């Protein structure tokens, strides 16, 4: 399938700019008392991220016949959760990273204690922001409760947090392919799944559609993680904004360490093809999500 990277990059930027405008609306201002925590929250959120999770919330909504405006609070909440997880991932007790996207990590700027509290504050703000979706006309409170439950489960001990625990346990010891798939599904894939489903749920998508989106998100998360692992081996540090080789230094099992670069690339391509198959029921309306899956094979950061 033909993919126009330049054109799609413009589409990503347009959606990212919209999400950033929404985030500025829902995040407390930097000068809110106490200022240090709100400055740190803005530092963690406005750090050059692609905003894939909130974009997926909005795409799920539009595929269900809604609009991105209708789910903007929930979309922002997913990004706050993602950013909190990155702040905590970078901490000395976790991955011990000094840079993210070319900037010093949150704990390097604000101190370790404030970085921990920044992550806590972003997680808390995410759910108060999701609740604000009830203020949007046409949002069914029942659907909103279902979406909140989806997101909470995906971020919790049986989702992202569980995956992070498995990731820590896997340091300095080998794990097999099945264990790696479970780890990455929880750590990375669950928030992608919750993002698509939350947006679609809020706009009343039926179970068949939700199942198709869930399957897409599963394979998208796998392709995204595989390419992430590949970039950690052969990516451009200037584009990534952080040193490559951190997985090897931390002795983590990754797709390249198990299968090598070429077979890992093939696994990513197979996952993308499954993404495209699961979008077939949506026809041309899913063009952006199709290109998003293809984008994982071409991204350099």
Helices and strands in order:
Elements: H1 5-26, H2 35-45, H3 52-63, H4 72-89, E1 99-100, E2 103-104, H5 106-110, H6 112-131, H7 141-155, H8 160-169, H9 177-202, H10 207-234, H11 237-240, H12 246-249, H13 255-278, H14 287-298
Antiparallel strand pairs: 1-2
Helix pairs in contact: 1-4, 2-6, 3-4, 3-9, 4-6, 4-9, 7-9, 8-9, 9-10, 10-13, 13-14
- What's the average pLDDT? 93
What share of the residues does DSSP label as strand, in percent?
under 5%
Spatial extent as radius of gyration: 18 Å
> Which topology does CATH recognise?
Farnesyl Diphosphate Synthase
The count of β-strands is: 2
Q: Which CATH top level class fits?
A: Mainly Alpha
Order of the strands making up the biggest sheet: 1-2
Helix count, per DSSP?
14
Which architecture would the CATH scheme give at its second level?
Orthogonal Bundle
N→C terminal distance: 22 Å
Q: Can you write the helix and strand succession as a string?
A: HHHHEEHHHHHHHHHH
Task: Please bin the fraction of helical residues.
Answer: over 70%
Shape: globular
Q: List segments where confidence is low: pLDDT < 50 over at least 5 consecutive residues.
A: none
Backbone structural class: mainly alpha
CATH superfamily: Farnesyl Diphosphate Synthase
What's the story with the biggest beta sheet? 2 strands, antiparallel
Total domain count: 1
């Amino acid at each position: 399938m033909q993919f126009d990277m330049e054109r799609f990059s413009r589409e990503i930027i347009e959606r990212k700019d919209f999400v950033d405008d929404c985030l500025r609306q829902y995040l407390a201002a930097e000068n809110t008392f106490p200022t240090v925590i709100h400055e740190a929250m803005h530092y963690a959120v406005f750090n050059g991220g692609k905003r894939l999770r909130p974009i997926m919330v909005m795409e799920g909504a539009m595929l269900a016949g809604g609009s991105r405006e209708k789910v903007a609070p929930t979309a922002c909440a997913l990004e706050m959760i993602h950013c909190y997880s990155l702040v905590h991932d970078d901490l000395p007790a976790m991955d011990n990273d000094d840079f993210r996207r070319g900037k010093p990590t949150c704990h390097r700027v604000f101190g370790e204690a404030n970085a921990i509290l920044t992550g806590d504050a972003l997680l808390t703000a995410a759910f108060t922001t999701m609740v604000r979706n009830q203020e949007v006309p046409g949002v069914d409170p029942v659907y909103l409760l279902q979406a909140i439950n989806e997101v909470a489960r995906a971020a919790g001990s049986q989702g992202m947090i569980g995956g992070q625990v498995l990731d820590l346990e896997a340091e300095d010891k080998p794990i097999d392919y099945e264990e790696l798939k479970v780890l990455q599904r929880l750590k990375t894939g669950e928030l992608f799944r919750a993002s698509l489903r939350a947006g679609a749920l809020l706009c009343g998508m039926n179970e068949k559609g939700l199942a198709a989106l869930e399957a897409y998100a599963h394979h998208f998360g796998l392709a995204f993680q595989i390419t992430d692992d590949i970039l950690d081996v052969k990516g451009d540090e200037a584009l990534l904004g952080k040193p490559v080789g951190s997985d090897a230094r931390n002795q983590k099992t990754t797709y390249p360490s198990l299968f090598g670069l070429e077979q890992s690339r093939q696994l990513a391509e197979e996952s993308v093809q499954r993404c495209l198959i699961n979008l077939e029921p949506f026809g041309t309306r899913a063009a952006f999500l199709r290109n998003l899956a293809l984008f994982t094979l071409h991204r350099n950061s």
